[in-house]
């Protein structure tokens, strides 16, 4: 059973409104602390900012390779060059299409179009890729919590978040280990999941796709290792940004604790591309270690700007193949209706 179109539109409008509201609030907070004046007038350490951009680009490249491996693990033929093109296009679409058809379904529609009869595996590939990436992010966040400084450990905010992160990490790792088991990918589980209202059909498709990994476990292991590497690089990129901007940034130890938690906040499906959520999370976490919240927001917004370099590459590919991509977007819309 799919959601009414009017409700989907309302949800999209609410997501966009929430993102805009958060960004306006953060911009006002930065301006209140003269953050933009400092950004313009005080010197920046450009080598650190350039290094941050390189790390962001490499981390996104790792995520594209991760999806490429997962597609092959599901028994489908796929070119690495297509993984990069679709990866940048998908990221761009996730920023500008906050509705039911975003970058993930576009990528699934491409594979389904190229390989008729493999629609289930195509959809499963993007769901599994998202899940593996999220578990990798949670593991990095959990490791960061182990090395948290005393000021962070005494924070009421951290104590509340810590329980959530540890619980989610344990659940995610357990699911990851069960992904190749018949417990979650057998026919009985597919039938059981298919009966769940609203989300039953996509969950059943995901379970069916997981069955392929029982004979391709190494692909899943390699993808998880890439997920860990991706988020370690992003943590380092945030620290480079804080060193490059005219702000007082955290130590690398504190940075390694707070950044993964901010990224986890950004993974919540409350705004388009997590816009405003990562920024707010990092701002609040900066405050817990005695730094200005506005500086945390500036660091996160700078990171956001660097990721838009990837989105710009996606826009370039879109312009170069607009007619074909528009056709695939129509197919992605049909796919969204089918799995809803």
UniProtKB/TrEMBL annotation:
Membrane-traversing stretches: 7-28, 48-69, 131-152, 164-185, 218-241, 297-319
InterPro entries: L-PG_synthase/AglD
Entry's Gene Ontology cellular component terms: plasma membrane
Entry keyword set: Cell membrane, Membrane, Transmembrane, Transmembrane helix
Domain of life from the UniProt record: Bacteria
Signal sequence range: none
Bilayer topology annotation: Multi-pass membrane protein
Primary location recorded for the protein, binned into one broad class: membrane
Localization (cell): Cell membrane
Name of the protein in its database record: Flippase-like domain-containing protein
């Amino acid at each position: 059973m799919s959601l009414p179109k009017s409700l989907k539109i309302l949800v999209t409008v609410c997501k966009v409104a929430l993102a805009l509201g958060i960004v306006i609030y953060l911009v006002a907070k930065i301006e209140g602390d003269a953050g933009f004046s400092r950004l313009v007038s005080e010197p920046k350490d450009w080598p650190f900012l350039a290094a941050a951009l390189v790390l962001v680009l490499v981390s996104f490249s790792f995520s594209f390779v991760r999806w490429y491996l997962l597609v092959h693990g599901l028994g489908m033929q796929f070119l690495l060059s297509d993984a990069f093109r679709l990866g940048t296009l998908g990221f761009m679409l996730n920023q500008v299409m906050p509705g039911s058809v975003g970058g993930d379904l576009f990528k699934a529609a491409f594979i389904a179009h190229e390989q008729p009869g493999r629609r289930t595996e195509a959809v499963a590939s993007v769901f599994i890729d998202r899940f593996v990436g999220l578990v990798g992010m949670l593991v990095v966040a959990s490791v960061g919590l182990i090395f948290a400084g005393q000021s962070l450990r005494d924070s009421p905010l951290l104590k509340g978040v810590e329980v959530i992160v540890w619980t989610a990490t344990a659940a995610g790792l357990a699911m990851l280990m069960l992904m190749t088991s018949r417990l979650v990918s057998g026919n009985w589980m597919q039938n059981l999941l298919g009966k769940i209202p609203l989300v039953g059909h996509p969950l059943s498709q995901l379970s069916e796709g997981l069955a392929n990994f029982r004979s391709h476990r190494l692909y899943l292991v390699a993808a998880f290792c890439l997920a860990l590497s991706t988020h370690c690089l992003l943590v380092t990129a945030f620290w480079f940004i804080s060193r490059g901007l005219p702000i007082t940034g955290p130590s690398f130890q504190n940075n390694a604790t707070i950044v993964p938690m901010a990224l986890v906040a950004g993974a919540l499906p409350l705004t388009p591309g997590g816009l405003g959520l990562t920024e707010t999370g990092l701002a609040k976490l900066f405050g817990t270690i005695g730094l200005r919240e506005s500086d945390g927001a500036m660091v996160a917004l700078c990171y956001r700007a660097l990721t838009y370099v990837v989105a710009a590459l996606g826009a370039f590919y879109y312009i170069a193949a607009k007619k074909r991509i528009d056709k695939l977007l129509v197919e992605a819309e049909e796919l969204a209706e089918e799995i809803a």
